[in-house]
Write a structure and sequence with these properties.
By secondary structure, this protein is α/β, with parallel strands linked by helices. It has two domains: 129 residues, 3-Layer(aba) Sandwich (Rossmann fold), CATH 3.40.50; 39 residues, no CATH class. 52% of the residues lie in helices and 10% in strands. The protein has a four-stranded parallel β-sheet, with helices on both faces. The protein is elongated. The relative contact order is 0.09.
């Protein structure tokens, strides 16, 4: 008799894993057999997934809430699925997609249908990730066109900045002293000078 395992993944430390934990709670999975990564699903170089994959043995059962929690890279999801189910002999249950339950339909037709569903879902997950990236890029480009600036807001120049610059230009003040007074780096100083001259 194999053991039951669960795998949870959220993309960032800020994201909440509660939905996935609740979905696994009612299953017969010992808490120490639930592995969780807070990392992107773009590849499988995730510490907890790697530990889990090493631990899984023939006839073990792995539960995941949805296929995109396993990963978002189409080719890699298919490869991991093949390794776990075909090479290791592990069963996988995707809770949100009952057709993806390798315990059912162990005959040729059942395996064939499961493989088709997996390929379609993996493709959809990766395609959605590509669409999100494209929408983000388009949103950033549109915001830049509207004049939205990204990054930290620029620090206000000291009121006496122009006077300090004149003193520096007249060699009455060293550059290092000027930078110290203005609390800025040399590159920032020259960039702010260029901007002032352009706007004059």
């Amino acid at each position: 008799m194999g053991k039951n395992y669960g795998y949870i993944r959220v993309s960032t430390k800020e994201q909440n894993e509660d939905r996935q934990i609740i979905a696994l709670r009612d299953l017969d999975i010992p808490p120490e057999n639930i592995y969780m990564d807070k990392q992107s699903g773009k590849d499988f170089q995730r510490p907890e997934y790697i530990k889990l994959a090493k631990k899984l043995k023939k006839d073990d059962l792995l539960y995941i809430k949805s296929i995109d929690r396993l990963g978002r890279n189409y080719d890699e999801v298919l490869e991991q699925w093949r390794i776990l189910t075909k090479e290791k002999g592990v069963d996988i249950v995707v809770l949100e997609m009952p057709l993806l339950d390798t315990r059912r339909g162990k005959d040729l037709m059942g395996t064939f249908l499961s493989d088709i569903v997996l390929q379609v879902l993996s493709f959809v997950a990766e395609n959605e990730r590509s669409c999100i990236r494209q929408r983000q890029a388009e949103g950033i480009a549109a915001a830049k066109e509207r004049g939205v600036r990204f990054g930290r807001p620029e620090k206000e120049l000291p009121d006496n900045f122009l006077m300090l610059v004149r003193r520096w230009e007249n060699k009455q003040l060293s550059l290092s002293k000027l930078l110290e007074i203005c609390q800025m780096s040399e590159s920032t100083f020259y960039r702010r000078m260029r901007n002032l001259r352009v706007n004059d």
